[in-house]
What does this fold into?
Amino acid sequence: MPLDADALLDRRRLKRHLAAWRLIGVVALVGLGLLALSKATGLGERNHIARLSITGLITEDRDRDEAVEKLIKDDRVKALIVRINSPGGTTAGSEALFLQLRRASERKPVVATIGTLGASGGYIVALGADRVFARETSLTGSIGVLMQTAEVSGLLDKLGVTSEVLTTGKLKGEPSMVRPLSPEGRTALNELLQDSYRWFVGLVKTRRGLAQEEAERLADGRVFTGRQAIAAKLIDAIGGEREARSWLAKEHGIAESLPVNDVEIERDDDSWLRSSTSTALGAFGKVLLPERLTLDGLMALWHPPAN
It folds into this structure.
């Protein structure tokens, strides 16, 4: 009988232990579920500053625009820091992001910090902020627009290859890889470039408070260091995120103790693939595929000079 009693006690202890572990498991699952729900809905998040990172080639990006739209409407986002490290991209993509930042600034302060590079289209994005910071050795500026193509008719002649092009107008298909650019085509394309260039210069003039002559003088395509840019009034101050947060605290009363959360751009697998492919083909196409110019628009992109 004593053995039976001991076995019974052991069984009861085992049941109690199993019940305790089951309870712990249920509590853990409920906790994980609440955490996931909180993350998905934003419940429980406190006030914070959003950080949007703009890197690489800038193109039109619906997912990015939707992410910015969400933070514009989110009252818990007290300010937006835009961290830029980009040589630029398409003028349309840069313009779209510029306009988004101006919309955001109607609801909350927007400040831009330029890292290693914020040139051409990257500088257009910076112009969308209420204040622009850059490092002393950052590269910025490169105010201008470019169109670049290649023409290989001479090579085709040497290879004995001929090309036939049928168009509905004499300027259709200009520029072309398989025939020299006509004088009329050159004039038309130059007018296209000059129109976007005037838009870019006007943006710099308005956003930086410059006279027309001064804006045009700075818009010769050159890049500036941060030290040169502040002297030219293209940026507001030298610094990075720490200085940006100090400015937000001083000018807008936004506590430096607020956490900074990175803006998450939600993409499914197909969206990510489309975005990556579009970016790669866009950059490649501007050099070798002139027909893509009619699809993606002009480029506001800084090219480092070749040795």
Notes: Confidence is low (pLDDT under 50) at residues 280-296. Residues 48-163+172-301 form a domain with the 2-enoyl-CoA Hydratase; Chain A, domain 1 fold (CATH 3.90.226.10). DSSP finds eleven helices and nine strands in the chain. Strands lie at 48-58, 77-90, 110-119, 131-134, 139-141, 223-225, 237-238, 260-262, 299-301.
